[in-house]
Design goal:
two-stranded antiparallel ribbon; globular; about 325 residues; single chain; mainly alpha; about 60% helix; 2 domains; Hypothetical protein af1432
């Protein structure tokens, strides 16, 4: 139903009652209590009737023919968030029962959806606590089952979630798998690093989603993006059980990016930059860079893993030669087997 007959005031009132969500999030419910809409050329078009059955075919067709976002009522949005929390809690209680790989894949999908909700409402204490506990449960499952690392990674990599949702999970899974293979950290330390890595970008929640699709940003936008690490720390500080060192790693997790940018621009990695560094922060930053550089973005193609490693080699190999060699071997095995 085209709503072109609506007055501007009516359209504005409707917009206030709707929230955009990733279409894939609808798979956990059978129907909406209110209509769902597609937004096209400044107009809302009703695309799903209330109480109409939601099928995987509908979700697939909508994503293919319209967009990744569907607009639903605030009431349905709240019900969907509650249902997602309920499904995660239910699944968490039985993660190690039955098909562990299947459970882990479903859990990571639900986790990504809930992270999206957290980006929309970063100061929701209940949501943050639930997301933190569920991501902790996923790390425990991954640590106990090395054989599921790659299937979970590949599932998220091949999903249609926005890259700001996939990147933290992909980099964190790779980080966990790699440092577990190093045998330099105990399980508690690995869990802490996984959680630090996973939540490091929550400060991106302050940035309008459309900005992530743009290749060229204004000076103001660039400054806003550059502050997201500090914003992540501010959002998490005192609200989740991450210690001061972990929060400082989050605050400084782009230090290798700055070195690489300086290297590309001036031929100098600027080792005098004042950042909290160490093997933990270096590894978190390295995997963040690897995933970011090798993944496609709406405005550019990803580079090869080899090219990304060539850049990393120039900023970490001298200080951590053994770990860098181990990283090359690990990626060769992880990405090709």
């Amino acid at each position: 139903m085209n709503l072109n007959g609506m007055t501007p005031i009516q359209m504005h009132r409707l917009a206030l009652k709707l929230k955009p969500i990733f279409i894939g999030r609808l798979f956990i419910i059978e129907s909406l209590q209110h209509p769902g809409f597609h937004y096209d050329n400044g107009q809302f078009v009703k695309i799903l009737e209330s109480e109409e059955g939601i099928t995987s075919e509908f979700i697939s067709d909508f994503a293919k023919n319209y967009s990744r976002e569907i607009f639903i009522s605030n009431e349905d949005f709240n019900l969907l968030s509650s249902k997602l929390k309920e499904e995660l809690t239910k699944l968490t209680r039985s993660l190690s029962i039955g098909d562990i790989k299947k459970n882990a894949i479903k859990h990571s999908n639900l986790l990504s959806m809930q992270m999206n909700s957290l980006y929309e409402d970063p100061y929701n204490d209940s949501l943050l606590t639930n997301q933190f506990q569920n991501s902790k449960n996923l790390s425990t499952l991954l640590l106990a089952n090395k054989n599921i690392h790659k299937p979970v990674f590949e599932n998220i990599k091949n999903s249609n979630y926005h890259y700001i949702l996939t990147q933290p999970l992909l980099s964190s899974i790779l980080l966990l798998s790699f440092i577990q293979s190093l045998k330099l950290f105990n399980e508690k330390e690995i869990e802490g690093l996984f959680l630090t890595s996973y939540f490091k970008d929550v400060g991106l929640s302050f940035i309008p989603r459309e900005k992530f699709e743009q290749a060229h940003l204004s000076k103001f936008d660039k400054q806003f993006f550059s502050r997201h690490a500090e914003n992540s720390m501010a959002i998490l500080d005192g609200r989740v059980p991450l210690n001061t060192t972990q929060l400082n790693i989050i605050k400084n997790h782009h230090f290798l990016n700055y070195k690489i940018q300086a290297l590309i621009k001036d031929g100098n990695s600027k080792d005098d930059l004042e950042f909290l560094t160490g093997i933990e922060s270096t590894l978190i930053s390295s995997f963040d860079i690897l995933i970011a550089m090798t993944a496609n973005r709406p405005y550019r193609k990803g580079i090869t893993t080899f090219s990304a490693l060539e850049l990393l080699k120039k900023v970490i190999a001298e200080e951590y030669p053994h770990e860098f060699k181990a990283l090359i071997l690990f990626l060769r095995n992880f990405l090709t087997k």
